[in-house]
Model the fold of this input.
Amino acid sequence: MTNLSRLTHAKHNIKSAALLKVITPLTSFVTRTVVIYTLGNVYLGLNSLFTSMLQVLSLADLGFGSAMVFSMYKPIAENDEDTVCALLSFYRMVYRIIGTIILATGIILIPFLPKLIKNTLPADLNLTALYLIRLSDTCLSYFLFSYRNCLFDASQQRRFLSQIQSLGKIILCLLQVGILLIFKSYYLFCLAIPFVQIMQNLFFYILSVQTFPNYVCRGKLPKETIQDIAQRVSGLFLFKVSHVLRNSFDSIILSMFLGLDILAKYQNYFLIITTLVGITSILTDSTLSGIGNSIALESTDKNYRDFNTFQLLFMTMTGIICSCMCCIYQPFILFWAHAGNMFPNQIMLLFVIYFFTERMGNICFQYRQASGLWSHDRIRPLVDGVTNLTLNYILVQRIGIAGVMLSTILCHIFIDSLWASSILFRYYFTKEKQSKYLLRLSFYALVTMIACTLTMAICRFLPMEGTNAFYSILFIFARAIICLGISSLLFYFSCRKLSEFSDAMAIVSRIVKRG
Done:
C-alpha cells in the first residue's frame, strides 16, 4: 500500500470517526432529554446503571479485538489469505466463548441486582426482565458476526464501521424517542437497543462479505501466533481494566450508596464532559500518526520542542473550555433539565476540575503511545483502577458524590500525570527533566484558575436564565463570549514569553489559513 493511499485512508477514517464522536453525544443528549421529561430520573439512572454493569462484564473481551486487528495488519498487507482466514476462524471461536462467559456471568449476577440500587423502583418495573434485555444486547454483539469487523480495521477502512455506527445511533435515537413519546414504555425503550444491534450487525456482516469475499473462517493458527496474541492481550487488558474501574464503577458506586436519582443527575453533568473530551480527542488523536512519524525520523530534541508546543496549544484550549464550563455549566443544566436536576456550585466546580485533570495528561499520553512504551506502562493502569475504586468506596460514604469526583481527580493528578509522565521522561525524553514538565502543568493550571475566577466574577452580573427560552439561550451565549474573550487574552499575555509560543502561533496561523 502506497503512502498516498495510507494518507487517503487516514483522512477518511478521521472524518468518519469525528462524525461518530459528534453524533454519539448528540443522540445521547436527545434521548436523555426525552427520558427526563417522559419517565423521570429513576429510569434515566437505571439506564446508566445497566450500561455501566455491562461495561464491566465486557471486561471478558480482555482487549482481544485490538490484539486481533494488530495481528491482521501484516497478512492483509501481504495478501496472505490463508493466515487471515485462520485468524478470522480463531477470532470467531474466541468471541463465541467471550459471549458465553458474559451471558453466564450476567445471569449469575441477577440475585445481586437489588443490592446495587439504594432506592426502590416503580412497581411496574421488573428489574430482572429489563436487565436480561440489556444483557442480550451485549451478548448478541459477540455471537452475530462482529468478529468480521476487524477486517475493516486491519485494512484501514475503519470509516465504514464508523459510518454505520453513526447511522445506527441516529436510528436508535429516533426509535427510542418515538417509543417514549407515543407509548411511554421503558420496556419497548430497552428492546429497541438489541433490535438495532441485530440490524447493525447483520449489515456489517453483509458489507464485510461483499468487501472481503475471499476471507472466510478456515484453517488453524500455529501455537506461536496464538502465544503472540495472548501476550498482546495481557497488556491491553490492564488498560481496559483501568478504564472500566474508573468510569463504570463510578456509576455503580453512586447507585449503591446514593441512589438512581443522584446517578441520573451525575450522568447529565458527565455527558457534557464526555462530549468535550470527544471533541478535544478528535484534535489530539489526529496528530498521533504525525507524532509517530516524527519520533521515527526526527531527533529527540526536535520532538521535545514539538511536545512543548502541542502541550501549550492543548492546555490553552483546555483552560479556555474550563473557563466556559464554570460560567455555562449551571445555566445550561437549568435550561435543559431544570433546577431539580442541578448540583450545588461546589460540585459543578469539581466536574470542571475533573475535566482539566483528565485532559492535562493527554499530550503526554500521545507521545508515550507513539514511542511504544506500553511494556513500561503495564502496571500503572491496574494501580490506577484499583486505587480509584478503593477511594470511591471509602469517600462516597463520607462526603457523597464529591467523594466519587475527588477519588478520580486524585488519580488523574498523581497516577496519570506524575507516574505516567515519568515513564515518558525516563525512557524517551531522557535528557529532559520531568520537573520542568510538571512546572509547566502547574503554570497552566494557575492561568486556568485565574481565568475561571475572573469570568465567574463577571458572569455573576448576568442572570442564570431568561423569562423564556430565547432569552435563556441569549444569556448562555453572552457568557460564552465573555469567557472566550477574557480567557483567550489571559492565556495570550501569560504564555507569550514561553519559548514554544512562536511555534504554537505558527501552527495556529497555518490552521486559520487552511480554514
Observations:
- The mean pLDDT is 89.
- The longest helix spans residues 300-337.
- The CA atoms of residues 376 and 515 lie 39 Å apart.
- The radius of gyration is 24 Å.
